[in-house]
Amino acid sequence: MTAKLNVTVAVDLDAFSVTVGSAGTLTCENVRGLIAVVRRAERILPGFEVILDLSLLHAGSPAAFRALGECGARTLPPHPVYDRRPNSRGLTARRAA
Are the C-beta atoms of residues 61 and 26 closer than 8 Å to each other? Predict the structure, then answer.
């Protein structure tokens, strides 16, 4: 059974951008569908910047992430995550993934 992705497409008419957000486990089978959504957004709205938000995706396959990198879409960096290890003062450090 193929893992499904939840995909949201947000169009910002003022900034001339389209953000394709996806959540779920990325596999070699469903990466083709995500790339198709990005390509469709590029065709429907030429001149708009298409941004692929990968912050809610889980790594199901490294090959699937490589395929996304090769598709040429601009990706948003992941959201900052909290490192649970305390530093020398006993505080939890915040770092970018």
Answer: yes
* Lowest model confidence (mean pLDDT) among 17-31, 41-55, 83-97: 83-97
C-alpha span between 40 and 36 (Å, rounded):
6
CA-to-CA dists, residue 54 to 9, 34, 96, angstroms:
13, 11, 14
- Check residue 19 and give its pLDDT: 93
Which amino acid, one-letter code, is at 45? Answer: L
Sequence letter at residue 12? D
The end-to-end CA distance of the chain, in Å, is: 30
**Locate tokens 């596999």: which residue?**
27
How many residues are recorded in the chain? 97
